Amino acid sequence: MTSQDDQHTAAEGTAGADRPMSGRSRSRGRRLLRILVSGLLVAGLAFYAGSFLRFAATVAGYQNNDAARADAIVVLTGGSERVKHALTLLQAGNAERLLISGVHPETTPQQIVISTASDLSLFSCCVDLDRNANNTLENASETAKWARENDFSRLLVVTSAYHMPRALLELNSTMADFDLVPVPVQTAELAFDRWFEDPRTTLLLAREHLKYLLAWARIAVMETSAP
């Protein structure tokens, strides 16, 4: 065998020795990738579970705040009980003016009075209707505009207890210089302190918590990208 044959054989031997090493490296790399992905999934689930439990505790922890007073009241539509509660606060003298945000374009004050058993005279002196907002983000924008136009600095925020965290998140993002006081409306058939016993309440909180996280992420991105 010539020296060239010897060199060729040696090269083949070296290449053959490298192949198993490369296979082991790829296998080790895939194993590390699986561990990394699994770790990220576990961390993500732990974050979500912890966030949900804090959210549920916040909702369950809201106390009756009907004695609070402010310059004005804003109620975010989503049920006649919210509006009725806000009108009751206005009539009791907790504030001088009320904004009902998110009113359907075709809804009249008379219809609101009928559905809430309230006094029509309040609408001629002390109630403003926002018909532009279609969601919580737009509620916050319209409320900020209204409050600044009227030189209000302290507002009572009326909405359902489960909706309050997201409502305050959106409002604070546009009204950081305002004093916002939560006045949650409790729903009799929803026991938020025992949410885990009722699938309907659990589902409601889970859905609202997801909306809260999406709003939080959007606001965080906007604040990060702001000049």
Give a quick set of tags describing it:
single chain, 227 residues, alpha/beta, Rossmann fold, five-stranded parallel β-sheet, 7 helices, 5 strands, transmembrane
Describe the structure.
It holds the Pfam family DUF218. One of its GO terms (biological process) is Gram-negative-bacterium-type cell wall biogenesis. Keywords: Membrane, Transmembrane, Transmembrane helix. This protein is α/β, with parallel strands linked by helices. The protein has a domain at about 70-190: Rossmann fold (3-Layer(aba) Sandwich). It is about 60% helix and about 10% strand. It is built from 7 helices and 5 strands; from the N terminus they run H-E-H-E-H-H-E-H-E-H-E-H. The chain has helices at about 5-60, 80-90, 110-115, 120-125, 135-150, 165-175, 200-225, and strands at about 70-75, 95-100, 125-130, 155-160, 180-185. The protein has a 5-stranded parallel beta sheet with strand order 3-2-1-4-5, sandwiched between helices. Helix 2 (about 80-90) links the parallel strand 1 and strand 2 (about 95-100). Helix 5 (about 135-150) crosses helix 6 (about 165-175). The longest helix has about 60 residues, at about 5-60. The protein starts with a helix and ends with a helix.
